[in-house]
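Bumping with the actual sequence this time:
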Amino acid sequence: SAMRPRYLTPQEVSLHNVPEDAWVSFLGAVYDLTPLCDQYKGDLLLKPIIEAAGQDISHWFDLKTKDIRTHVDPVTNTVTFHTPQGRFLHVPPPYPSTDWANDFGRPWWRDTSYQVGLLSKKTRFIRVINTLTSQEHIIEVCTEEILSEILHRYLKYNAHAGSYTWKHAEHELDMGLTLDENGVPDEDEEFLRLRLEPDDYRQTLYLCYNDDLTEA
């Protein structure tokens, strides 16, 4: 089967917010621009990118063309790239210039080698209770993730999470399906509508240690 994409939460992207570790998200994907920052260290055109590290920069782009937004320059009356945050790497200057080197090949925003995953369209928080130790954690997951990927997120709390059977309301969960497909619906919008505090009604997953499972 084809490799599944890695889904990331905006919170995870936000942790990578320095030149030595610079991620951004745009148009649904997440990019690690650290090598770019390294390559152009000290270049003034890097400034807007460094300032945006850890954030979503979809507003820099035209949704249709997937390219940098353009506008008509009031001075020259020609169409130029619209960069209110300041011109950045691989964006040509608005006026003809002799020191503009366009030999970099593909601009960074079209270079998929920087892509590290997809930005989750919707995240949700779930409560995970270990029935063996009674430990409880609330973790943020991507709605697109299947249970085995959620298990991977939970490993930092319990390295042995793979030795457990994951259950919800007495039903064993299929690790190859999403929460939704497993009948664990995302009710955030419903809570919002009813003005209920989601924290009080979190969907709970139970980890049952496999040695404890006795056939009924």
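The tokens above came from a reply further down the thread. The first strand starts at residue 7 and ends at 8.
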